[in-house]
Amino acid sequence: MAPPREAALEALLGRLALRRGREPGQERVGGALGAPPGTLQTSSPQTVGVPRSHISPTPAARELNRLLAAAQEAVDQKDYATAAQNYRDYLAKKSDDALVHYDLGYAYTAMQRPDDAKAEYEKAISLDPKMAPAYLNLGLTLLASDPGAAVEPFQHAAALMPAEARPLFLL
Asked: Which pTM does this prediction carry?
């Protein structure tokens, strides 16, 4: 049986939205290599007709992907401090990645740093206003300290995920 503090943390993390629908160890597709997150970039105007295996990412893209892989591995191991550091290092090089701001918010939540988590979820939303899980996690983060402030993020999440009952239940 987990100690009470660990059990409470696990319960909180269980309530958070799935992290972009990835299962532990699942590779990130897109993002650092320039493809929209969640899609596979198969060609660009410069690479039409060139097999994907012959396209080498730049050293900078390889480094960004290494940081993401290390962060994901740390999250899988529940080493949220290491994951947060990898995400911060990534964002120092590519600050406009909404998904990584979202992931950093998740890591901060796991580290029980709600103010930092709130800032990262808000940054993710500012970069991608249709990121429903960021609204949901922002609402959950605000729920403990300011339930009234949680209403608006839950409303946005409900509007963006009309088939999901969870945001409506939280309202």
From this structure: 0.71
